[in-house]
Amino acid sequence: MTLATAHNGTFWKHLRTVMLATVLLFISGVLSYISFFTMSSTFWVFIIAYNYVNTFSLMLGSMSIYLVLMIDYHTLRGWQSLDDVMFYIRGACRAVEFIVTLCMCGYIMMTFYMEMTSAAGIVMLAAYTYYCIVQRGGKGWKIWMMRRQASCKVQSLPRATKEDLRNKSDLCPICYQMMESEVRVMHCKHYFHENCLKKWFYIQDKCPLCYAQFQSVAF
Ligand SMILES: [Zn+2]
Ligand SMILES: [Zn+2]
């Protein structure tokens, strides 16, 4: 991913990194399959399979992001939806990790219930479940909601017309790129790219130029 954003790697450097990632993806995929479908279902096999699946999901996500960044750099240049696409890829990886973790917690609970019930084991399980489900799941949900709120705020602002943009002929104050399309107007009459504003509202809900508090503008 760093290689894709740095834009200074040689062809062989890219090839070596992609090949290494492909090998890791293939090995983790094969080992996940073997663990789940050919080995007997024991506690430790499940723990190992959990790590293989997480590695597979992580490698798949990293390779997808690498591919998207390379497409943006070599063909699209300044793809407006790049940030959204990367967010959804990362979100999908986190969702897979969360679902696998949920399954593992369920399996561990069942094992504890059927095979042993020491107080220490129950405390350990409760702590692990809290960390995995409440902490990580809660954090993921919070990020998702913040993103959704930022998107709703941007959607509530009016779009600049082509005539507006022609008359204004200005750069976006956030990314310093020309504002030619997908531009929104804040109630303070400042113009920004839709996606730039979305990223900004993710951090704070004030105008990036005059710091006026965000207000939804009636159409
Ligand atoms: Zn911009
Ligand atoms: Zn403003």
From TrEMBL:
User: What GO cellular component entries does it have?
Assistant: membrane
Give its localization.
Membrane
Identify the InterPro entries for this entry: HRD1_E3_ubiq-ligases, TRC8_N_dom, Znf_RING, Znf_RING/FYVE/PHD
- The membrane spanning regions, by residue number, are 18-37, 43-71, 119-138
PROSITE patterns recorded for this chain? ZF_RING_2
Cite the GO molecular-function annotations of the record. zinc ion binding
> For the RING-type domain, which residue ranges apply?
172-210
Please name the SMART domains in this protein's record: RING
Bilayer topology term: Multi-pass membrane protein
> What are the protein's UniProt keywords?
Membrane, Metal-binding, Transmembrane, Transmembrane helix, Zinc, Zinc-finger
User: Iron-sulfur: present as a keyword of the record?
Assistant: no
Tell whether Zinc-finger is among the UniProt keywords.
yes
This protein's major location comes to membrane
PANTHER family referenced in this protein's UniProt entry, alphabetically? RING FINGER PROTEIN 145 HOMOLOG, RING ZINC FINGER PROTEIN
Which protein is depicted?
A: RING-type domain-containing protein
